[in-house]
Amino acid sequence: MAQNVRYVVLLIALGTIAWLVAGVVAVAMSADAKVIWTCVMGAGLGLTGIRYTIRRARRSGI
């Protein structure tokens, strides 16, 4: 079961990295503030998801 947690964290981390890359591209292209904030919030929620998944796995004894 611990392997599944690693895969989930890896998947969330890849999504978070994708949001960060999109944010950098948006800033480089002088995108609207709405697009940049969407990227920031996506990355922030990804970090929250990683933290939540790890804490949940530790609490359940996986």
TrEMBL record:
Transmembrane segments: 7-29, 35-54
Keywords from the named record: Membrane, Transmembrane, Transmembrane helix
Pfam families membership: DUF2530
Name of the featured protein: Unannotated protein
Biological source species: freshwater metagenome
